[in-house]
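Journal club prep, notes for RB
We'll compare a predicted complex against what the paper describes. Inputs for the zinc ion case:
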Amino acid sequence: MNRQNAIPIFDGHNDVLHKLHAAPEKDVESFFEGQESWHLDYPRARQAGFRGGFFAVYAPNPDSVPDAQSRLKKGPDGYQVEIAPPLDFEYANRIAGEMIENLLRLEKESRGRLKIARTYSDLEESFHKNGLAAVMQIEGAEAVQPSLENLADYYQKGLRSIGITWSRENAFGHGVPFAIPASPDTGPGLTEAGKELVRACNRMGIMVDLAHLNEKGFWDAAEISQAPLVSSHTAAHALIPRSRNLTDEQLKAVAETRGLVGVTFSVNDLDGGKRPKKDAPAQAVLRHMRYIADLIGVEHVAFGSDLDGTTIPSEVGDVTGFNLLRDLLQEAGFDRDALRKICYQNWFRVLKETWKD
Ligand SMILES: [Zn+2]
């Protein structure tokens, strides 16, 4: 395919703000100059036609929590990682503040190359004018007070999407532990504060993200929300029975609300760990996209890469892997209209419907 005419990409999830935060010696300029050890930076985004996406503000487990490897319990057919303990509000709020500050600095020091999309017209403008349109998202709502008192402050700073939980419990709901084979039905549904959070997000025009949330929480959100249902980075449970992936019933519910599923590049969710992680092929992404498109329609599937947040197939490698994936989609028989939907139009439709301006 001629790259000049390549369809641009808007992606459902990346963790480059986490990479930047974890390397305080790096300046925001590293992102614009290029940072080979990350999946995503500005020069490679340009090569890939990657023009926008959700930039996650995510508080990692504090150092006091043993790493995932030491919390892993193997079983005969799979494993489960013992769930991490809840985060303090103070800690989560501080980390979120620092990461948001980094994103604001990326915008400020970008000389027009990166713009935080606060409205739908912002989004269209910076995406189509060749810059990078960043949507500010909190992944795991621990930095939001259960009273929702500080939600408006976050909105003011540019927040336009909230993932209710990461794979942890918080004041709003219960995230799934990382496990396979496992159902996503791993515990109770949304708390009262969680239900209020969904209603408040609907009112304010903040996209609610159901990635990492357990199944009962998902159904609670489905019942309450007036907006399209979204899971920004996940895969099909029917193909890989991992706790993070959506069942066919959940996928159908997403479609019924004109919602959207971003397909992750995480080899754990796509491939289930039956072979060495790096050997998972790029085709694994396609396999999940094809399955979801066949089940609920091409209007409801998009990219949700999780770049810089997970292990991805070595064939995909980094953000430039979008070039390969675009070609593979075409080879798999998705026509140009379908490709446009998958690459960005579906995300745009959902954001237009969810945001208030
Ligand atoms: Zn995630």
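Talking point for the session: The mean pLDDT is 95.
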